[in-house]
Amino acid sequence: MKDSGKVKERKGFRKIEPFLYLTPALVLLATFVYYPFLKNTVLSLFIVDKYRNVKEFAGIMNYLKLFQDEKFIQAIGNTLIYVVTTVPISIIVGFALALLARKRYKCSTGYEALFALTMATSASVIAMIFQLAYNPSMGVINKALGISINWLSDPKTALLSLIVIQIWHNIGFNFIFMFSAIRGLSEEVLESAKIDGAVKMSLLVKIIIPLVSPTMLFLLIKDIAYAMTTASFTLILTGGGPSGATETMVSYIYGKAITGTNYNAAFAATTVCFMLSAVILVLSLVLEKKKVTYN
User: 194 and 140 in one domain?
Assistant: First the structure.
């Protein structure tokens, strides 16, 4: 009887054991992610003063005012453009560099480190580098192309300039993961595919890409989440200007909450930003069932 009781206790412990390991992470998530989001969502339904003291219930009035703000609508459009351009291009470039670095050579370590260098560089340093490169009078880009464009001050080129910086910043991280996935492919599988007639593009499309698709999905989700919620280069280089050309949802929230102390708009905009990000991420996860191959 005692042995059967001990067996039952062990089985019961095994059932709850995984949750015990997850408890510290869940506590941190609940404290620093879920609770602040729920509090933000609740406060978005009230009128608050600049000290965040609740004054009265507003319902959806904050949201109605928010969507009447042309600057916020422009920020949504800029954010979506930012995501649609930076995410796929940075993943494709990272994947291409990983393919180039797949075979080992004597000088492999050198160019592998160079490809990953952007990951180890802080956003502020990258911003300073590109600010000099984009300088209209002495910048290397205008000098090399023989043109005179004020890249960060012209509404036609400001957002494109930030997109280029973000892509360059993402490449190192994407390269590291794609490089690990490609280096981890079985040479026997690749050789068997070549014997069966899969060469060059067919080998790439039918064998390599499906095998590394889980890594691609991870990078897709990570890059989308990052692009939807980042405003580093916008705040450092342009402040959302000129004329809102580089304003993103997060920089809009920052301007309303920190600079303008308009928490009514900031709380509502934060909730909208989260919901829009969630929708895009869910749509991305649909690819898991159709395009991702697990082996």
Answer: yes
